[in-house]
Amino acid sequence: MRLGRAKQQAPKAVALPGRGETVTLNVHGGGRIPARVMERSEDSVLVAITVPTRPLSRSQLAELELEYNSARGRMRLVGSFDLPDPADTEVIRLLEVRKLEVVQVRDFVRVEAARPVTVWAGAIGGQLESFTVDLSGGGFQLAGPDTLPVGEELRFRLSLGAEEEPVCGSGRVVRITPQGRRGIQFESISDLDRRRIVRYLFELQRGERKRGLTGDR
């Protein structure tokens, strides 16, 4: 009796981000560009850049990464990036998708911190000066305005002190508290700026403990 050859299992397909989902394009050298998925098929993704930026060069396209949140963590995909329409440099297509890695997302400690923040959003018609109610390495709670809806994208400039460079990036409104405050989740922020926020919060907590204002966490 001849035994049949065992069937080889096909490799599992990479879970691609869905249409309308916010993603980040990681440019070689440290740049991060927010984008949104326009179309998705079984083996390709078409995204549109959502902020003003210079057209990506061929060498930058060759080393580009696509990053997005999934149930497993922060996914990074590589493959063949190109411009379907060379005249429209803000629309980029990813073919021959391969998973690079899954970065597990940690929960960040959230600390009460009132810091000045400048916000730009379509729902407020331009620029607004506000402040944070609390802050973490993953986002902040914004005191106002009360016109920002859930899902609204925005840009921000956050001050960590007079002697510090401001933290700049983009975020999205993910919740509204009963008090009407907006919970902002970071969409695009450099790793350096995230570490600066975490370090600032660590120093803030340490100072509060020295003054006896809070217990150990």
Explained architecture:
By secondary structure, the chain is mainly beta. It has two domains: 82 residues; 100 residues, predicted glycosyltransferase like domains (Thrombin, subunit H, Beta Barrel). The protein contains two helices and 13 strands, in the order βββαββββββββββα. The strands form two sheets. A six-stranded antiparallel beta barrel has the order 1-2-3-6-5-4. Strands 8-9-10-13-12-11 form a six-stranded antiparallel barrel. The chain starts with 21 loop residues before the first strand and ends in a 7-residue tail after the last helix. The N terminus is likely disordered.
Characteristic key phrases:
single chain, 217 residues, mainly beta, Thrombin, subunit H, 6-stranded antiparallel beta barrel, 6-stranded antiparallel barrel, 2 helices, globular
CATH architecture of the largest domain: Beta Barrel
What's the helix count? 2
How many DSSP E strands? 13
Helix content: 10-25%
